[in-house]
Design brief:
Strand order of the largest sheet: 3-1-2-4-5
Shape: globular
Number of helices: 12
Radius of gyration: 19 Å
Order of helices and strands: HHEEHEHEHHHHHEHHH
């Protein structure tokens, strides 16, 4: 099913915000659209979505791989502001970008990751429980068993099902390890920072790529209390996320 261009999603989302004072009507509209799109899905299993944004600058020699729910809007805004002329924002898999750009091997590759438990909760909060955005329906209606406003513990259980696995995942809940190329490419990155240490880690990147100031403007960061996700878990859901995102936990050295 064709994806709706982001510029149109914004317009439709603005329409949905008109209903924010009428939550019952909004929920009914979202559920109606969800069921219509779900019927059009015709039982097809989605393909893994590895087409998140990448920022490539051949002139300055860097490649940034964005991971959803890891300060991507803030980082992309930085390049839009300070390197609009040279920075190319690409929506393709890392494998395709590398195959189409022979000189990318010598570029400075970097990305940022996030605690898997915090990222999973953030994904649910923004994509599943958010009442005021239409575009999320275009994502969740592609999957059997994924429903608007489903409880967090049920979403965690769903992530551990076949539909929720990396083989079929949307990029918003795809393993970060896989988004960074898995075994094939993750070791090729020059630097993988952490959102929990974003200010210091971005200053390292800034000193290498020489695009703008080494300080990242915090436009869309909900990091006032980086441990606030912990009280959303119980022992069962905590263990399920550890299993589902085992590669992220192990490779990027995270714990609950």
């Amino acid at each position: 099913m064709a994806k709706i261009p982001w510029k149109y999603k914004r317009l439709v989302n603005k329409f949905f915000y008109l209903f924010r004072e009428k939550p019952i009507a909004l929920k009914g509209l979202k559920n109606f659209l969800y069921h219509i799109r779900n019927l059009l899905r015709l039982g097809k299993m989605p393909q893994a979505d590895l087409t998140g944004e990448k920022v490539l600058s051949k002139n300055k020699g860097y490649l940034y791989v964005a991971i959803p729910k890891v300060a991507t809007r803030s980082i992309l805004s930085y390049f839009e502001k300070y390197d609009e002329r040279d920075a190319l924002v690409l929506h393709s898999s890392l494998n395709n970008i590398i195959s189409e750009n022979d000189d990318i091997v010598s570029a400075y590759w970097f990305s940022f990751v996030r605690n898997p438990w915090a990222r999973a909760y953030s994904c649910w909060l923004d994509k599943i429980s958010n009442q005021l955005k239409f575009c999320d329906i275009t994502i969740i209606s592609r999957y059997e068993g994924l429903k608007p406003d489903m409880p967090f513990d049920k979403f965690v259980e769903w992530l551990c099902s076949e539909e929720g696995s990396d083989e079929h995942a949307d990029r918003h809940w795809m393993s970060q390890y896989e988004l960074l190329g898995g075994e094939k490419y993750v070791e090729e990155f020059n630097f993988i920072g952490k959102i929990e240490n974003l200010s210091d880690d971005f200053s390292i990147v800034g000193s290498k790529i020489n695009v703008g100031p080494n300080k990242l403007p915090e436009l869309n960061l909900n990091q006032k209390d980086p441990l606030s996700y912990r009280d959303k878990y119980n022992d069962a859901t905590k263990a399920l996320i550890a299993k589902r995102y085992k590669k992220d936990v192990t490779y990027f050295k995270y714990n609950f």
